C-alpha cells in the first residue's frame, strides 16, 4: 500500500510534467507554420503585405476594459497610422474588454491570442509573449516592436522617444533593448529639465520596451523559456554583457487598475509617484553618439571621479554631484533605503544599474551609488585608469 502511494505521489506528477512540456515543445517547434486565430483576417493579410517601414506597438490585454484608455492615448499621440501601428492582442475572451476594443474599428489591429490552456500563469505569459513576437516579426514582418501591458498611460512624446532611440538600438550592438520606464523615476529622484537624458543599464524592467527583429531571432527563436521569461532575459543579457537604454523621465506610468496584466508591478507602484513626462513640445535632442558604449563609459567614469565623497557633501555646493560607495548587496540595500529608491536586486543587478553603478537624484543633487571595486571597473571594463 505504501509503495503504491509513493508511486502515485512522486512518479505521476513527474510523468505529467514531462508530457506537458513535450506537448508545449511541439507547439513551439513549428514556428514557420504558426496558425493564427485573429479577429479580422483580411486586415491582417493587408497588414502583412502592404505595411510600410514602421514599428508596431504590441499591447497585451486580458480582462481589462480600461485598456481602451491606453489605446486612445496611442492613437491620439501618434503622428500617423503609417508610422506607428497599434496591435492589441486579446488573450482572454472577455466580453466587455472585447467590446471596447472593437469600437476602435480599423484604427487598430485587434487579434485574438492563442487558445491554449496552460497550468500556470507564468507559463502562459511566457508562451503568449513567444506567440506575439513570432506573429509580429515572422508573420507581419515588422522590424521592431514596443511591448506593453494593458495598465499603462503614456507621455505625449511616446512615439518620438522610441523613434529617436531606435537609431541607437540599430547601430550599437551592445544595446539589445530600449525601455520607456525609469523604475526610480519619482519626481524626487529625476531631473525634470532633461527629458532626453538617457542611460545605459543592465537591469531589464520589462515595462514598455522596444526590441528589434534580429535581437528576437537571437534570443527567442532558439532558446525561449517555458516559464519566467523576464528572469530568463535578465540572465541572458547579464551573461552577454548587453545593455538597455532607459530614460531619465518615464514615458509610461502604471494606472490604478486591479484587472490588468501589470498587477505584479502595481504593488510596487502603490507607494510611488513616477514622474511622467507630459509635455507636447519636442525638446532639443542630444547626439546619440554620446550614448554609444565607449563614449558613455568614459564620460560616466569622468563624472564619478569629479564627484565628491558623500561624507563631504554638506560642505559643498548643493548641486555638486556626490558618490556613495557600497561594499556588498547589504550595503547597497541600506543606501537605497536611506535615499528612498528601489532596494531590490534581480539576479544581483540593482534597479537601473550599469556595471554596478546606480545613477539617481536626491534633493536636486546628482548621486552616483558605486561599488567599492570601481577601480577594477575602470581598468578591466572601461579599459583605462
TrEMBL record:
Which GO CC terms are listed, alphabetically? Answer: Golgi membrane
Q: What does this protein do?
A: Initiates complex N-linked carbohydrate formation. Essential for the conversion of high-mannose to hybrid and complex N-glycans.
Query: Which family is annotated?
Result: Belongs to the glycosyltransferase 13 family.
State the name under which the record lists this protein: Alpha-1,3-mannosyl-glycoprotein 2-beta-N-acetylglucosaminyltransferase
Please indicate if the UniProt record lists DNA damage as a keyword: no
> What EC number(s) would the UniProt record show?
2.4.1.101
* Keywords, alphabetical: Glycosyltransferase, Golgi apparatus, Manganese, Membrane, Metal-binding, Signal-anchor, Transferase, Transmembrane, Transmembrane helix
> Gene3D superfamilies, per this entry?
N-Acetylglucosaminyltransferase I, Domain 2 (3.10.180.20), Spore Coat Polysaccharide Biosynthesis Protein SpsA, Chain A (3.90.550.10)
UniProt membrane topology term:
Single-pass type II membrane protein
Q: Which GO terms describe its molecular function?
A: alpha-1,3-mannosylglycoprotein 2-beta-N-acetylglucosaminyltransferase activity; manganese ion binding
Q: Which domain of life is it from?
A: Eukaryota
What the entry lists under InterPro entries is as follows: Glyco_trans_13, Glycosyltransferase_13, Nucleotide-diphossugar_trans
Q: What class of enzyme is it?
A: transferase
